[in-house]
Write a structure and sequence with these properties.
Radius of gyration: 25 Å
Distance between the termini: 47 Å
Number of domains: 1
Shape: elongated
Pfam families: 7tm_6
GO molecular function: odorant binding; olfactory receptor activity
Oligomer: single chain
Number of strands: 0
Membrane topology: Multi-pass membrane protein
Number of helices: 9
Strand content: under 5%
GO biological process, one term: signal transduction
Helix content: over 70%
Main location: membrane
Structural class: mainly alpha
């Protein structure tokens, strides 16, 4: 028999605050830490991590080969190359930062769990739900915006090439096998199958780097929001404190 009424109060936890950035990492098989010792290991996550890491190493090698064996003839080519490397290194730096400081991140978040408001009165004083709604909406908006830009960036070359091929004036004109990133491969990509494989690998690495620095940024924002919530509560308690000159004041302090 169902109860006559249901408690509809929403009480977000610390994991809820950082759910989106940590969830995004699971798409590339990454898991920074376990919330509890009994959290199971994901075999699919390990497989994804190995695949994405291997593809990224291969693509970084191909980008380096482009610098070594190809000529950057114009200023536009040089600018494009710098932007590509900046995009890739930004993601690599954020991923390395998450990896190196994962224990510190775990310690901070689990420390905040201990101090997380537990009663209804504390949740109201902390303004728990408004803080959570703000950061959750921001994380969703930034994720959609960022991944949409990444998708446009990596799909634009092939869509442009298809459009140009379909609307070509010369029937003998070949398809333009253009790729999103400047890379030099060990094989000729100017054929359908090698081109499709190379394009797919570049797309995987593009999303890999995007998810790394997107997750890093969102995790930082979420943790700052959590700390701000605790500081705001502390400030309000200090401002509302009325000393009585009794020993109970020390307990409150």
């Amino acid at each position: 028999m169902k109860p006559a009424f249901k408690n509809s109060e929403f009480s977000p936890t610390v994991p809820d605050f950082v759910d989106i950035p940590l969830y995004l990492l699971t798409f590339i098989g990454a898991k920074l830490f376990k919330w509890t010792p009994n959290d199971p290991k994901s075999k699919s996550g390990i497989i994804l991590l190995v695949i994405f890491s291997g593809l990224t190493v291969y693509n970084f090698t191909s980008m380096m080969r482009f610098i070594l064996f190809e000529n950057l003839e114009t200023l536009l080519d040089i600018t494009e190359c710098i932007l590509f490397w900046g995009f890739a290194l930004n993601g690599l730096m954020k991923g390395g930062t998450l990896l190196c400081f994962r224990h510190e991140i775990e310690s901070i978040l689990k420390g905040l769990i201990v101090r997380h408001p537990k009663t209804k009165e504390e949740r109201l004083e902390f303004q728990l739900v408004p803080y959570y709604k703000t950061i959750n909406a921001s994380n969703k908006y930034l994720s959609i915006w960022h991944l949409s830009i990444t998708s446009i960036f990596i799909l634009h070359p092939v869509l442009t090439a298809i459009y140009g091929y379909v609307n070509r004036e010369d029937e003998n004109e070949d398809f333009d096998y253009v790729l999103p990133f400047m890379m030099n491969y060990f094989y000729d990509v100017n054929h359908p199958l090698p081109y499709a494989i190379s394009y797919f690998m570049q797309c995987c690495s593009a999303y890999h780097m995007s998810l790394l620095f997107l997750s890093g940024d969102l995790l930082l924002i979420s943790m700052v929001q959590l700390v701000n919530m605790h500081l705001g509560y502390l400030i309000s308690r200090i401002e509302s404190f009325q000393p009585t000159g009794m020993d109970a004041d020390m307990k409150v302090l």
